[in-house]
Amino acid sequence: MTKPLTAALTLQLAADGVLALDAPVTRWLPELAHRRVVRRLDGPADDTVPAEREATVEDLLTMRLGFGFAFEVDSCPVADLAVARGLGMGPPLPSAVQHTPDEWIAQFATLPLMEQPGRHWRYDLAYSVLGVLLARAAGKPLPALMAERLFQPLGMVDTGFSVPVRARERLIPCFTSGDDGLVVFDGTSDSDWLEPPVFPHAGGGLVSTAADYLRFGRLLLNGGSLPSDGSPPGEGDPLDGGSLPGGADPLDGGSLLSAEAIDDLSRDHLGEEQRNGPSASIFLDGEGWGHGVQVRLDPALPRRYGWGGGLGTTWYNFPDHGVTAVLMTQHLPPLGEPILHFWKTLDDLLGAA
């Protein structure tokens, strides 16, 4: 569930004037100037028209860059090219991308977009681009930036892009389903998350714990700060693959995000056509999308926002009830029945409260 954290980091940098949401991405990613767009998703990758406008930082946050998975067609040549160039069009495994951030954006720049920027919600390469942009805008690698701006202040000591030696005995495997039952997708002794990745993936690269993620959920529920309740943040160093300057104490009553930023993050930014588009209909199921989070729109159900990871993790905040909840099932793809049962039970409890 990396995207919500990436979105929070983006809003922090916007509040500090490091970037602007309405700014074109080419301000930091000049490689993406003069984009072209394929005429048809299932058409030749060299049959293109000019992009009508440049993509913005907001387009990346809302996944309206114009590139991602194209499930609505049987064949998508430009998506095949992305796979061939090793851009990570598949399950979120760190080893799937062996490009450095600069190499990755250079490879992506060789491809046309699938559709005009801002037109559709499409999962999910926009967050890969966003991670490169954030690192360039802030002038430091994404793992150090996230640890410094989020994990260290929040006391999220078990969250990062790799698991250090001190925590490896607590890493558990992720499974997938085989012909004869469960099989290991990512193990513990040979996990993809044991070493810092070549490409820190801002859309799905983090490893964490339920306790850590609940601290992030509480931050949002509490208007951008954690309550001064003396709750222990945990022990050890942030999982950033390296040391960080500063040595600041975990956040205790301080502010990381404004209430306005949290409202922006947690409200729907899509139009009706975008919410019901081919990609959105699969991932959002008619709900909205804020900045890095899915937003429930049905007024008959408890208001909520959050997201689910491809490896079976899921989190939602219920702001009207002051509730944050995390479920980690460790399975690719996510197991629908237990996850849906968990959230329906919580909906029923909160709806009756």
Automatic annotation (TrEMBL):
<feature type="region of interest" description="Disordered">
    <location>
        <begin position="225"/>
        <end position="255"/>
    </location>
</feature>
<dbReference type="InterPro" id="IPR001466">
    <property type="entry name" value="Beta-lactam-related"/>
</dbReference>
<feature type="domain" description="Beta-lactamase-related">
    <location>
        <begin position="1"/>
        <end position="337"/>
    </location>
</feature>
<keyword id="KW-0378">Hydrolase</keyword>
<protein>
    <submittedName>
        <fullName>Serine hydrolase</fullName>
    </submittedName>
</protein>
<dbReference type="GO" id="GO:0016787">
    <property type="term" value="F:hydrolase activity"/>
</dbReference>
<dbReference type="InterPro" id="IPR050789">
    <property type="entry name" value="Diverse_Enzym_Activities"/>
</dbReference>
<dbReference type="Pfam" id="PF00144">
    <property type="entry name" value="Beta-lactamase"/>
</dbReference>
<dbReference type="InterPro" id="IPR012338">
    <property type="entry name" value="Beta-lactam/transpept-like"/>
</dbReference>
